[in-house]
Amino acid sequence: MLTEKQVLRAPRKDYMNEAQLEFFRQRLRDLREETITRIDRIRGELSEEHRECDELDRASTEEETRLKVREVSRASKLLPKIEEALCRIDDGSYGYCADSGEPIGTERLLLRPTAEYGTAAKAQREGIEHTHRDHDVDA
Q: What does the pLDDT look like over 16-65, one tens digit per residue?
């Protein structure tokens, strides 16, 4: 199995070869397991009953609970993205921008293994989303 350094040092002609695909497949599987474990841990923490008498303690506990619920929500949204990335490995489209078909790049994939778009396409999409959000607010 390749290391992260080997993936980064690989020649361009080796981009998304079988060894790199296996590297990212394993990275995504590990990320899925870590995410599930984190969700389960936080849900367990949330299910523990806290009875705070002090108003300040209660406010602090409520804030902690809000942050934990938000973390579970974010982690839960990551799981389908992981599954989609694994499907892209299987269908041969992993590592290539869904808009342009150009390589996303190993550096970006190491930072965000679920990436579906190259940096330019992602920036463009975020700009469009931001513009639509601004128009929705103005309406």
A: 999 999 999 999 999 999 999 999 999 998 887 666 667 777 788 888 88
Task: Report residue 126 as tokens.
Answer: 């975020």
CATH homologous superfamily of 4-138: DksA, coiled-coil domain (1.20.120.910)
Domain edges within the chain: 4-138
Nearest to 121 by CA among 97, 93, 94: 97
User: How crowded is residue 85: how many other Cβ atoms within 10 Å of its Cβ?
Assistant: 25
User: H/E/C letters for each residue in the chain?
Assistant: CCCHHHHHHCCHHHCCCHHHHHHHHHHHHHHHHHHHHHHHHHHHHHHCCCCCCCHHHHHHHHHHHHHHHHHHHHHHHHHHHHHHHHHHHHHCCCCECCCCCCECCHHHHHHCCCCCCCHHHHHHHHHHHHHHHHHHHHC
